[in-house]
Automatic annotation (TrEMBL):
Belongs to the nitroreductase family. Its cofactor is FMN. This is NAD(P)H nitroreductase YfhC. It comes from the Bacteria. CDD domains: YdjA-like. It comes from Oceanobacillus neutriphilus. Residues 10-160 form the Nitroreductase domain. It holds the Pfam family Nitroreductase.
Length: 182
């Protein structure tokens, strides 16, 4: 059976975690991709996302500030790590006191990020959704002006790349699929 282009894209998309080259990731490219990505499903039309883009020129200062929230012995390592990508997109999600709405918001943000990931892949722009400990740190939230009713859903590390990593495969669906038989 031949796969549709979309099915191929879904399968071939990879997380690009290292090996970023020097080609600049521009604000214009990221905004173009986000213009499409925000057509993700969103319950109550809440569209519970906002974005903070950090380009290559501003990454060193950003990395220093975020790294400074770690214990001293980790700071150099974390600063270098945050300087590896060409740009970082901070995805900020609206939280809720109502668990149902929180879950719906995280679901919508996840769908939006997957859209972004696939569209970036089409443009040969590598990205990875990162959930490092710093995204949960109140000090980091303060530095980035994340409000009390918001959370950082992730740092999206971005960069163009020369080598596609090997795929990791998936557990066969048959191992995870049952039919309810009453
Ligand atoms: C919600 C979420 C959080 C993730 N957080 C991290 C992370 O903190 N660090 C990391 O290296 N990769 C992270 N990833 C990327 C996964 O490790 C990656 O998608 C997985 O290894 C499968 O590889 P593939 O995307 O290339 O198929 C995250 C992915 C998701 C969906």
């Amino acid at each position: 059976m031949s796969r549709t282009e979309l099915a191929k894209l879904i399968r071939e998309r990879r997380a690009i975690k290292k090996g970023y080259n020097d080609k600049k990731v521009t604000k214009e490219t990221v905004m173009q991709l986000l213009e499409e990505s925000i057509w993700a499903p969103t319950h109550g039309m809440r569209q519970p996302w906002r974005f903070l883009f950090v380009d290559k020129d501003h990454l060193p200062g950003f990395a220093k500030k975020i790294a400074a929230t770690y214990p001293e012995e980790r700071q150099e390592n974390r600063e270098n790590y945050l300087n590896e990508p060409n740009a970082i997109l901070v995805v900020i999600m609206k939280t809720s006191d109502i668990p149902k709405q929180w879950d719906e918001n995280f679901g919508a943000v996840s769908a939006m990020i997957q859209n972004f990931w696939l569209l970036a892949w089409e443009e040969k722009l590598g990205i990875v959704w990162k959930t490092n400990p710093h995204i949960y740190d109140e000090k980091v939230k303060k530095i980035l002006n994340v409000k009390d009713n918001e959370k950082i859903a992730g740092f999206i590390h971005m960069g163009y790349f020369d080598e596609v990593p090997d795929e990791k495969g998936r557990i066969p669906l048959a191992d995870k699929f049952e039919v309810f038989e009453g």
